[in-house]
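Entry:
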Amino acid sequence: MSSPGSRPVSPAAASQLNLRGAVDLSALRRPAPPASSGVPAAAGGSNGSSQPLRVDATEANFQDLVQLSSQIPVLFLLWSNRSLESSNLLQSLETVVEGFAGKVVLAAADVDAFPQLAQAFQIQAVPTAVAVLKGQPVPLFEGPASDQEIRSLIDELLKVAEANGVTGNIGVGATGAEPPPLPPLHQAAFDAIEAGDYAAAAIAYRQALAEKPADSEAKAGLAQVELMGRLESLTATEAEALRHQAAEEPDNVEMQLSVADLDISGGHIEDAFNRIIAFIGRNFGPGRETARVRLLELFDVVGISDERVAKARQGLARVLF
């Protein structure tokens, strides 16, 4: 699974990192095991500790690491002992992360020991680095990266984290005051997501919108759980078949929308938007309106303030008018 030809994201691209644009990992969590996951012990030393701020990610502590990302960025490295690049990059990340004095935690996920973690992040090669903020994955890079490139990416990641209120420090107050409770219907939706019941989560969000139509969080949540529901039972083989069929049937609205869902879930935002906009530009009638409505829903999934959404809105206006 090594990827010798891949390159890290450039600092310029890193400056566009955004929390939205990929499937919320909170939907992938399983119920926490009764025993402690060990995350605080692994990453809870003082900032002056001689040990790296690293925890070994496992299926057992994955939930805790995702939850921790609401307080501090968690940088996952998906790696393998079979890959020399992986081992070297892991050492570099340990050193670089230590230099950020507790502002970020490194989670090393051995994909040979825990293949489900690789599946959760939908990675194609090792090593791959993915940050998680507020439960959402932010793809960083595949393959090797220099210490300076890693530092630049983490600098930009911390800017995004600060903009989204994630400012904890693993050595100072990362487990500070409890966040305010969610509104009841939002909590019901979150609980349903935790249980993997996306249909129930959608019902809760729809009820929240019925009571408060301007509830942007409920609107975004509904769009996201509906996306997760559409992808829930899709296997990798079926996904590949959908892509082939969509290529052969460019004017089949269901095929094009299904592949757009796959692209959104994999973080290929512009590909998804461009696919639907191109379909709308070629077609008229009910299929066109179906595609337009789905595109607006995907805008909510990605986040209306995202630059890619603004660009896609312009593209949509051009083909509609």
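The beta strands are 54-57, 74-79, 105-110, 128-133, 136-142.
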